[in-house]
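Hi,

I'm pasting everything inline rather than attaching a file, because the server keeps stripping attachments. The sequence lines come first, and each chain or strand is labelled.
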Amino acid sequence: MLSYLLLSGLTTGSIYALVALGIVLVYKATGTINFAHGDQLMIAGFLAFTLHVLLGLPYLVALAGAVAGSFALGAVAAQVGFRAVLRTSLVNVVLATLGLAFVLKGFARLTWGGISDYLSFPPLVRPEPILIGDMVLLPQQLVVTAGALAVMGLFALFFRLTTIGKAMQATADNPRAARLVGIRVERIHLLAFAVGAAIAGAGATLMAPLTLLYPDIGFMLFIKGFAAAVLGGLTSLPGALVGGIAIGVVEALAAGYIHSSFLEVSAFVAIMATLVLRPRGLMGGPPPRRA
Amino acid sequence: MLEVEHLAVSYGPTRILEDVSFAVPEGQVVSLLGGNGSGKTTVLNALCGMVRPDGGSARIAGEDCTGRRPDEILRRGVAQVPQGREVFATMTVAENLEMGAYARRDRDGVRRDTERVLALFPRLREKARRRAGTLSGGEQQMLAVARAMMSGPRLLLMDEPSVGLAPAVLGDMVATIRALRAEGMTILLVEQNVGVAAAVADTAHVLRGGRIVHSGPAARLLGDEEVLRSYLG
Amino acid sequence: MRQSQGLLRAAALAGALLAPALAAAQSAPGVTADTLRIGSFGALTGPGYLYGRLVMNGVEAVFDQVNARGGVHGRRLVLVREDDRCEPGAAIAATRKLIHQEQVFALIGGGCSNATIAARAEIEQSGIPFLVFASVHDGITMPRARNIFSTALTSTIESQAQLAYALEQGARRIAVVSMRDAWGRARYQPLMEEFRRRGVSPVADEEITPDANDATPQVLRLRQANADAVIMLLYPKPGAVFLRDAARFGYRPLAIGQSGIADPAAFEEQVGVPGATARFVTISMVRYTPDMPEVAPWRDAIQAKYPGDRLSVFNLFGVGAAQVLVEALRRAGPEPTRERLIEALNGIRDFPTDAFGGGITCTPEDGRCNKTVVWIQKEPGGPIRVIGTTTVR
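And the predicted assembly:
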């Protein structure tokens, strides 16, 4: 039983991690929690659904389309919605992201709300399911875990190898100094929101076969992803992965060994306990300074 | 190289700089002295585009650059060494230098400047792979100067490089500024430490209440008891 | 003084005696010589459109048929639609508009339960006859409001039928998997009462959140309890996750859903694991699936009127409800009043429709007029079939 619960925690935790990565990226670069991240995922999922299911394009094209579309949408939202308020207070930015979340949800309800209650999304791969003990592991569950690892790895390389990645890290590290060396911090913030949305695009396309699609899915994903990000320390990409999986596992164990009514509350108890013992989260550094 | 005329800056309703005019001739070290709140850091921030002046102008090599963005001013050859060092603490020394050259596209020039800067600060070469946050205060100050040099500036703005340095390291800083001057670098040095300013500057201006109250050759001005009293008071 | 008081009294008495006659002569709101305006509210936009717009389309199809045959006592039926967007506030506004501004004669509508519940007070107070066509919450019809009737199954009726079905099928070890939000509790509590009433107790009682992406712990606990039937008080998403994860362990109990999972074909896709829904049955409010020959006339009517739409069970909710309303309007006579319509509705006994599982019976004591649950199932890869009905109390 333990191994089954651990495995199930790992697979659901990967979903949380995939959400958390985007939240961490935006927080690292801008010092802001993007409350619209869950709804950006939702929109990206519907975008992928439109491309793949409604228009019949191949899965990988839909994935690329969702990533590109999300990136564009994130850039536009940041330019129109956040740019003006980024210079003011943190509260204003948070309100702006919350506003965006509502706009996106309303848009999705009107656009895709008339198809079905929960849209099903065909999985990327349909090879033989993998048998572990007497439990079947769905290939898509492995795809999500691999996807979370891949996104994390790609961004580690992006930050280490590319100038723009380094500029992003420099902006997160010290916005004032970044300005002095000629980095246009506003553009980096814009880019961070757009890249965060692009991660949402990839994540949504990978997880949609497991989570189904519906306009209200964003909030739940955001809450779990945010919890994972906080647990991981908010500034660390590996922390987001570890945090997501930790929450998935804690939930599975609590539900399996105590009762399913403890599932929801267990994750938050775990977070509170962690933050009391380690206020910076599992792998967090100091919070980013704001420009 | 730099001509500042009637510069005025406010933060909200508070006027910080009333009317500041001075010049930094090419190849010289000019020092701007003042106590806390005299507005000397604001002068630098206005020059490098971090704050927008309400009035006056700043010309770099004859071109009016008042109110331009930091990256535009940087491209015109003005780099700042900020107060309190402000290195990228989570990044390595090498990455800090790379970021210093962020605005540049000439790869060969960057490579040459990297060599030049590392020759000037051999300690940074030894610690190229270390995270900047783990360096000592003096080393971080060197890194801040080195990073500013990486943009290939014609004019270096230094904001109180002596603050927080141990007396033993202070001598290194003076030597560094002299070495830069010897290479032909033009420097505007904002200081509170009269000793450092007197040791390196050609010309000095004393700033008080947002205005320049004294100007003159550094050696004479900073030897003047009366000026020092007014400055300290 | 005394005399004038007497005069006043006489005038008042005369007025009171004359009033009903005047009212009848004036005709009721929404009634003209040749039209009868009926109001409807529900979600026209957003995902709730299934329980709103589609049901209204069914109502409209019946009205069209009646109008083509000369209307009710010579009056053409006109449907006035208002969008409640599935939101309580919008539902209150919509009913107010229909009653006071549009001056409709009666209401047929109510999609999302929470929206309809919010509008209940307004409707009850105004005294306008209201026939609920889709909302399932018990709070809409109970406690009894004299002017509110429903042809929708209520959550209590469904819960009772779920347990009855499990026992009928010979299940010995019955488990419950439920959501514990407002929707879930409205079903969970009556289900537990029914367990007690029948002297049975569930062998396992697990929760799943509406947004769950994993049900492995719940599946393992049910398997450990060796449950042979599972009553699912779940929406399609958690329901799909539960059956998917059960199938991953090769665990296939009899799974009994309710009208929250209304479309077994969509559900099979949502579960996504071949064969996982083989032992899944669920409740339909109507006894036909959209592709059966019995509903061909309605299919033609709806698909002709709303090009691009395919006949759905939600259309049939509207067909059944509208047939009941039209029958009551007929019985209310050529000079209809709201009171006469309420009286006529209360007289409906075992009335057959083209949609519901059994006859419709409304009484002054109970406005829940439809108590027959239809069981449907979709064999993997096959069509949806009706496999039986259960009528409660």
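The interface with chain C takes residues 1, 4-5, 7-8, 11-12, 15, 109-110, 113-114, 116-118, 120, 122-123, 129, 134-138, 207, 209-212, 214-217, 220, 248, 251-252, 255-256, 259-261, 263-264 of chain A (CB under 8 Å).

If the labels don't parse on your end, tell me and I'll reformat.
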